[in-house]
Amino acid sequence: MELSDLIKTSQVENVRVWFPLKPPMTGTLCVSSHHLLLSDPSVSNTKQGDKNSEMWLLHCAVDTVEKSVQNMGRLQNKENEQEKESKSSSGTITLRCKDLQVIYIEIPGMEETLNIARSVLALSSLDSVSLRYPFFFRPSGYSLGQGWPRDTMENFYEKISTETETWRLSEVNVDFQICPSYPAKVIVPRSCSDDTLRISATFRQGGRFPVLSYYHSSNQMVLLRAAQPLVGTTPYHCEADEALLAAALIESSSGYIIDTRSSQETKQARSAGGGTEHKSRYPQWRVIYRPLERGRALQDSLVRLVGACFEPSIGMNRWLSKLHAANWMSHVQEGLTTAGLIAECLERKYTNVLVHGDYGTDTTLLVTSLTQLILDLDCRTITGFQDLIEREWLQAGHPFQLRCARSGWSQSRVQQESPQFLLFLDCCWQVWRQFPQALEFNERFLSTLAAHAYSSEYGTFLCNNEKERSIYELQDRTHSLWGFLNQPRQQQKYLNPSYKETPLAIWPSVSPQSIQLWQGFFLQYLLPLEHAEMARLRVLELTRENKDLTDTNN
């Protein structure tokens, strides 16, 4: 299929576009294979290339397309008794984008309006990965391969191996046949053979056997993650899996299994062949249920929140009621609470922890990554945070393509959509707000990651796992988002000028008054943020002045 076949009308003159918090533009609207473009001829040639003179919108950034037409009446020509469309007909297209931006486009001509709407709708819903824009994006001065690969498992293991010899790097999954959602190499107890891992994989949902997620160097405790055991109603057990988890307790006599489902959900899963670890088979492990929302319920929560934020002429009482009904901030609170519990087990109780839900690709990754942000200084740096996302989300098999297919505007009933990664970034923002000097990156960095997870010119968040990324050869055919963000001029935009290294654990408050709405993302196109940018630049200026003064005194 050629993308040009999906374009019904490629160009329309005298189109007027309204952007949030910006003056409207009038010009020529063009539909290309991957972008919706508008150029305003009223801008002088000296300002060509200015962002205020052009609109470049990726089709994949569009969440929903709404259209309406006016003056649809027909004029009858009495001489030839033929009907023709009124010249005064026009239409409006409303594009609701995945970053929550809303764009209104007024187009002269009913047929042009309908054709543009059909074209954008088709081009924003491409099923084929290889037809997406990252495979065609070739910016000047930026070579393919820059930023790839990012924090491979070898680098992660190298840090751990300098502190302990009880873990090893296994290549048992090098061909992705044991577990398609795991990376080719994983870190496992040294005493467990690859045969033990293969047998354990048959006992875990999707082949996701227990692997090391985080090594807490201060006391040698470890955080593991996996998928649910396939216990069923029999109940079935696996000696290899039991041996694997027993081997993880070399440094501790006991451990906790954090199941991110409720006990009732676990019982239902058992009737379908799943379940959780039985205490008689895992006597050194204690199961704790910490139910976290996922799937369609979490997607519905996001849709309700976005609806509340964008409802016009809403009073304070109604706003607070809708915000409470959305339940989004309760999910934020629960995620931080569970991560805090795991961090406390590792840091204060000197116990190892295994985390899983059903598949182990959503809520499991949410809490394991938040736990590391709480405990590990390295994860709070801008490069360390990228490593965390690469290791705990991308390489760990979070299905970005399925989960981020639609954002907060979509009313579709696709069961695979779920804003788990957005929830993680929101939780990180809560930590950043409560500890303004502990994280090296700023709020803008988190918002940028959220936008790129849903639509991007870069290939970093494409596909659902490492196996798919290998099949599509993303490292050879697309550019890396990390390579772009880590360019010196770009990185300066995302650094926190108030950052100071905090080697101790940071414990975020989860009291109701401590959890706030992430205005910098959910309200970024409703509230002017110039004052926030001015404040950031002023803090940066003061920080530089203070550094210069310190250097002079020294």
From TrEMBL:
Gene Ontology CC terms: cytoplasm
Family that this chain belongs to: Belongs to the protein-tyrosine phosphatase family. Non-receptor class myotubularin subfamily.
InterPro entries: Myotubularin, Myotubularin-like_Pase_dom, PH-like_dom_sf, Prot-tyrosine_phosphatase-like
GO molecular function, one term: protein phosphatase binding
Name under which the protein is recorded: Myotubularin phosphatase domain-containing protein
GO BP annotations listed: negative regulation of autophagy; phosphatidylinositol dephosphorylation
CDD domains: PH-GRAM_MTMR9 (cd13211)
The species this protein was found in: Hymenochirus boettgeri
UniProt cross-references to PROSITE patterns, sorted A to Z: PPASE_MYOTUBULARIN
Membrane-traversing stretches: none
Domain Myotubularin phosphatase positions: 147-522
